[in-house]
Amino acid sequence: MPDDPSGQVTQLLQHWVRGDEKALHDLVPVVYQELRRLARTHLQSERPNHTLQSTALVNEAFVRLLGAEPLALQNRVHFVAVASKLMRQILVDYARGRRADKRDGGHRIDFDMFANLPINGDAELVALDDALADLSRMDERQAQIVEMKFFGGLSAPEISQVLGISRATIDRDWSTARVWLHQQMSRAASS
């Protein structure tokens, strides 16, 4: 992920947090290509005939950002992590809608499929989101680390920077979260 040596992204984010809505619009051209790359990464994990395109996913993420209260975004890495989480949630919402239309619930994936992305199918994405929601209720930080690593494509140092915790804590929480998710996915697959 490119750094923000000039601090332009950070400055625009700070202006937006202070209520300058124009700052978010000024931010778009600065980070747009990076967000398109991120959207393509998310969509590579989706089914091949997915109707959303990377441009639409980026646009929907911006629409959600514009519709929300300004977040206390610290810098470019934090912004990209939040945008990645929004993109994942958009895809999950889309999958839940398709799943509800088809009523094909009960499909679960095991941890091996989860660990070896891509995830194939709406039901698997929904199952993964459910497991992450459960993890989030137990340990929010571990869930954030999983989201940033898998869905945001962030490295451990970048996650450390966003969350403001040490690399050792990231590694420890990542290991713990993987074990917990393995157990949850195994239970879901056997039920």
Quick summary of this structure?
By secondary structure, the chain is an all-alpha fold. The chain has helices spanning 8-17, 21-44, 54-67, 76-102, 111-115, 122-138, 140-151, 156-163, 167-190.
Structural category is: mainly alpha
Q: What distance lies between the first and last C-alpha atoms, to the nearest angstrom? A: 40 Å
| Helix proportion range | over 70%
Number of domains: 1
Global shape? globular
Task: Let me know the number of strands.
Answer: 0
Using only CA atoms, what is the Rg?
Answer: 17 Å
Write down the secondary-structure element order.
Answer: HHHHHHHHH
Task: Compute the average pLDDT.
Answer: 75
Percent in strands: under 5%
Count of individual helical segments = 9
* Major sheet attributes: none
Low-confidence stretches: 103-119
Q: Descriptors for this entry?
A:
single chain; 191 residues; mainly alpha; 9 helices; 74% helix
Describe this structure in words.
By secondary structure, the protein is mainly alpha-helical. It has one domain (8-190). Helices cover 74% and strands 0% of the residues. The chain contains 9 helices and no strands. The protein has helices at residues 8-17, 21-44, 54-67, 76-102, 111-115, 122-138, 140-151, 156-163, 167-190. The termini are far apart.
